[in-house]
Amino acid sequence: MDRPRSSVSLSAQLVAAILISCLIATISVLFLSFTAVRAVDADAEARQLRFANRAIEEEARRIVSEQQVSTVWNEAVDRVKAVDHDWMENNLGAWMHQQYGHDESYVVDTGNHPIHLAREGMTVRPGPAAALPPPLAELAQDLRSEMQRATRDEADSTPDIADLSLSRFLLLNGKPALAGIVPIVPDKPDLTQRAGTEYLHLAIQFADADMAERFSSTFEFDGAAFSVSPGPEDRLSVPVRDAAGDAIAWFVWRADRPGHRLVDEMLPVVTLFAAFGAGLLAWLLRRLWSASRRLHQSEEEARYLAMHDPLAGIPNRTLFEDRLDQALKAEKRGGPPVALLCLDLDRFKAINDTLGHPAGDELIRQMAGRLCSHVRETDTVARLGGDEFGVILIGMGSEETLARYCSGLIHLLSAPCDLKTGQVQISASIGAACAARFDGEMEALMQSADAALYRAKADGRGRFCIATPEMNDMFRLRHEIERDLRRAVAEGGQFQVLYQPIFDAEGGMVAAEALVRWTHPVRGVLGPESFIGIAEDTGLIEPIGLWVLDQACVLAATSGLPKISVNVSPIQLRRAGFAEEVLARLAAHRLPGHRLELEVTEKRALDTGSETLSNFDRLRAAGVSIALDDFATGQSLLRYVRDYQIDTIKIDRSFVARLGSGDGTDQIVRAILDLGRAMGIEVTAEGVENAAQREALLGMGCHVFQGFLLGRPMDALRLAALSARHRPSQKSA
């Protein structure tokens, strides 16, 4: 009888042990599950709240960047001020609705009155008494106040305000809306706006189902909507606040609580199969880990987007600078040498403007792909902005190796690209720098690469240049000259015009060329070769050129000089209205057009655009003659003579200096003179410095001369006196 008792007791103990074990396991599972569920749900809710706030912030940035696609544009400035409603509809109004879904778009004049309105893709033309709704009027006034504070140059506010913008949520007609406002500014320095004359562009996006859907598609919100109050307990909400910090709406969505979802799914299974608690616990933890991984993946994707360029899919400037900093620190600790490349696509803007932004985007992607295919895994390719790329090369310390690499890279990038719109070919300029030559400092290295890039572009584009410490000095010198040149233009009194006489074969003065000089307060008298290139790059050529033209017209009008010749830049010729400015100065000095000649150098490419041709046509119709300076030193001399109907060609002094040298120069000069006779174009020989050169040119049939033999550059009084003594014969005149 003892055995049965013992057996029962053992069974009871076993059952009790099993029951206790199951109970302990169940309690442990419940406790761990409850703790894990709460932690995962709290983590998920916190992440969703961060994503929601980030979505609202990114929406505010997005609307401004979409506006600036069409508002930073020379044509936008001209068309808006001309109140071209059709153009505004196609670029700033209905187009914004079609392209980006903006509910309303306003174009606002300098008095903050709407001159154009697009609502839901339909254009409305406001009347003279139309006014902005009060919230938008306040927003416009806030931006103008910011613009006024930022403006340093009243004559041209664009550089100071181009990047200004405001975006905020507000109540518009009782409905919450996101409003973005930006100034309409030119994208090129040849067009300026005085402070206070800028027009504004307002874009409205209502906080509605469309905006909620956009948030949901990016951050995977479930059942998202905007509401006037926070959502119920099963939903999460974040406030949408106006400028005063007051909540004007709530972004509400169904909370994703993966812990609760899993508990709901697993509770029946756990209840029925308690004996398998350990296995079920492992399965539950695995499922919870999977849900958490999805949330972490979303965060990683957001972090990736913050550090990479969305168009090219490569690192952006932020990640690039971080990697460069790490590589330089590693090099200082004895790691591999570091080299930096700065690349710029040549004439990318022309392709973007002619073929459209989609073609430009496709070209950027293809160029990024080529760069990535040409580097190793340890290197970094990044898009630094626009058409500018950066490359970090690890383990390339030899400048000889670096030069070979850059040469191959230029060859690779210059290959034709097949775009959807057709095949295009583009080149790239590269500035390279080895970190070891610049003490391994990131700022100095990047400045050196930029200086080398500038030098490569100045040497003709489609080239590379390796930075040297001396190049940095040249780069700084150029910036100093640019700074001083701006001050000289603003203050005046530092420029003077000298005149070099031009004689015919009989010794009569038939014209004079105006030559500008800059009396620098420190560097002394500088010739045009020292600063005109910088003036062209910075837009300062406009005021300098017009000032020289004024001085030349005064001389021609007050002396008996038959003709005055003035140099103009292709930068001036491509600007709309240049011809009218020239003709206005002729009229102001009562000078007939045939007494003015404009010289264009062949060394800088002329723009074949409609504005250049139109300016030429208007000037020629008024009797102004056109001369092609430095003839036969460029690449398109015959095309220029044909396309621009040149009146005079000037043989470059380099050919005159080599006359009689037996290297073929004489034949080239004869060919130029034959070309002039065949086309009825007058030919002037520059740089005539001795009698032998003059006699040789006379023998070839040249009858107009300029050079030190005949007269050096002189001031206006001396030239007027010389002109009186050497009046041309009636036949020459």
TrEMBL record:
Positions of transmembrane segments: 266-285
Matches recorded under InterPro entries: Biofilm_reg_signaling, CHASE4, EAL_dom, EAL_sf, GGDEF_dom, Nucleotide_cyclase, Rev_trsase/Diguanyl_cyclase
Top-level division of the source organism's lineage: Bacteria
Keyword Glycosyltransferase in record: no
Keyword Electron transport in annotation: no
Residue ranges annotated for the EAL domain, each copy included: 478-727
Key words of the record: Membrane, Transmembrane, Transmembrane helix
Start and end residues of each GGDEF domain: 336-469
UniProt-recorded name of the protein: Periplasmic sensor diguanylate cyclase/phosphodiesterase
